[in-house]
Structures are given as C-alpha cells and as structure tokens.
C-alpha cells in the first residue's frame, strides 16, 4: 500500500524488530502517563499496536536481517494491561495513605488547584464507585481521580474490580485492534491525514489555551488571597498612632 513507503512509517518499522526496547518503553510510558505525564496513554498503546502490525507484515516492512525478533501483540496487550492496572492501584494506595499530605506539597499544589480538587471530590462523592470506571475512560483526570478514590477511602476490593474491568476493556483492545487491523486503520489515516493533523492541531491549541487561562486565573486568585490576608492581618494588628510633633 502507498502509506508503507512514507518516511515516518519506514522509520517506525525498525522498532518492530526491537521487542525488548518496545516492551521497556511501553512500561516506562504507561507508568509516567498514570502519574500525570501530559501524554495520553492512548498514544503509547496505539503506537505499540502499530509496531506489532508492522512486525507481523515483513513483506511490507522488511526486517533488518533474517530471523530478527519481532514485537508480540499478545504479550504487548497483556503487559500493558498489567502495568496500567498496577499503576492505577498504586496511585489509589498513595491517595489512601498519604493523599492529604501529598496535595499540600508545593509541586502537587501547582498541579491541582483547590478549585480542581473541589470539583473532582464533589464528582467522586456524587458517583461513588462508578467514578472509578469513569476516570479510567477519561484522559487527563485519571491521576487525580484515582488519587481521590484513595483519599475518600473507597473499598480497595471494589476499586480493583471496577478499575480492572475498565482496564481490560480499554487497554488490550487498543493494542490488538491496530496489531490485527492496522492495514485498514492506517489506510484511513493516510486518506484523512490532513484532516487528522488539523484536528490534532486545533486540539493542541485549545489545550494550551485552557492551561494558560487556568494559570492566569490561579495567579489572580492567589494575588487576591494574599491581599485579603494582608488586610486581615492589618486589621488584627493596627499600627499604633503616631504622636503629634511638639
């Protein structure tokens, strides 16, 4: 097919025959994404699924030498599932035992504004254990969502059951779909490449705009809080009157 000759696909194809590198990168990226790295885990899952497809089609993506090891799609899907569930549960445990102290740390306070935490906590209390599954299917709020589930002392067994089911539905399917049906999916990407790039560009601009807006609001809110604190402190400890000069 025409897209097999694209430079980007030919460059990616070399990694289809470096399975240990791909497995290691998959684990590293999944762990970092679970802990709030601003790269959705879907990007990593679809990328490794694409590599598995390339390795299964040596006629289109020739190996560097005869008998070169290839990325295994079944192992990829299983590894991704285990890593994602393990990191989700680890974040839940961190929230359960150290969450309240953790969110007061200056670095975490920059990531999670009081308004964001209040909204997320309200949502979690409203939907209960159902929120666990919703967080798993919603990029961008997985880390704070799972942290809050632990902070609110949700049952670890129920959290594990619901999150595990959501992981088994969402994670391996993304890898295997591309691994086994990559020809059709990549053909569609080639056909609509311009539209896809335009959508991604708009999404990136919108993401940056929202981040800048939130940063501006948080800075103004903090300035107002400092001003209010200063006024309150002055009211509690007024300066003594200056005696008139003789």
Give the percentage of residues in beta strands. Answer: under 5%
Q: How would a textbook summarize the main sheet?
A: none
How many strands appear in the DSSP assignment? 0
The share of residues in helices is over 70%
Structural class: mainly alpha
Query: N-to-C SSE series?
Result: HHHHHHHHHH
Number of helices: 10
Distance between the termini: 98 Å
Mean pLDDT: 78
Which outline best applies?
elongated
Total domain modules? 2
User: What radius of gyration results from the CA coordinates?
Assistant: 25 Å
Give unreliable regions as ranges.
Answer: none
Write the layout of secondary structure elements.
Layout: H1 7-13, H2 19-34, H3 41-55, H4 73-102, H5 106-111, H6 114-127, H7 130-136, H8 142-151, H9 156-191, H10 193-236
Helix pairs in contact: 2-3, 2-4, 3-4, 3-9, 4-8, 4-9, 6-8, 7-8, 7-9
Describe this structure in words.
The chain contains 10 helices and no strands. It is mainly α and 246 residues long. It has 2 domains: 2-191, no CATH class; 192-237. Helix 2 packs parallel to helix 4 (73-102), helix 3 crosses helix 9 (156-191) and helix 7 packs antiparallel against helix 8 (142-151). The mean pLDDT is 78.
Summarize the structure.
The protein has helices at 7-13, 19-34, 41-55, 73-102, 106-111, 114-127, 130-136, 142-151, 156-191, 193-236. By secondary structure, the chain is an all-alpha fold.
């Amino acid at each position: 097919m025409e897209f097999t000759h694209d430079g980007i696909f030919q460059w990616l194809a070399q990694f289809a025959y470096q399975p240990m590198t791909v497995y290691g990168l998959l684990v590293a990226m999944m762990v970092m994404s679970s802990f709030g790295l601003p790269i959705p885990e879907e990007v990593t899952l679809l990328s490794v699924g694409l590599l598995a497809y390339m390795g299964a089609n040596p006629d289109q993506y020739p190996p560097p030498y005869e008998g070169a090891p290839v990325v295994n799609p079944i192992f990829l899907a299983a590894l991704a599932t285990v890593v994602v569930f393990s990191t989700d549960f680890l974040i839940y445990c961190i929230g359960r035992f150290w969450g309240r102290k953790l969110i007061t740390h200056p670095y975490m306070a920059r990531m999670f504004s009081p308004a964001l935490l209040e909204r997320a906590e309200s949502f979690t209390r409203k939907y209960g254990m159902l929120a666990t599954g919703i967080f798993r299917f919603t990029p961008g709020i997985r880390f704070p969502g799972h942290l809050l589930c632990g902070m609110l002392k949700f049952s670890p067994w129920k959290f594990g059951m619901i999150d595990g089911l959501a992981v088994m539905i969402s994670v391996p399917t993304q890898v295997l779909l591309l691994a086994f049906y990559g020809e059709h999916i990549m053909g569609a990407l080639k056909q609509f490449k311009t539209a896809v790039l335009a959508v991604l560009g708009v999404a990136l601009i919108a993401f940056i705009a929202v981040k800048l807006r939130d940063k501006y609001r948080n800075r103004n809110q903090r300035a107002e809080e400092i001003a209010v604190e200063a006024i309150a402190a002055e009211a509690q400890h007024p300066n003594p009157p200056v005696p008139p000069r003789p």
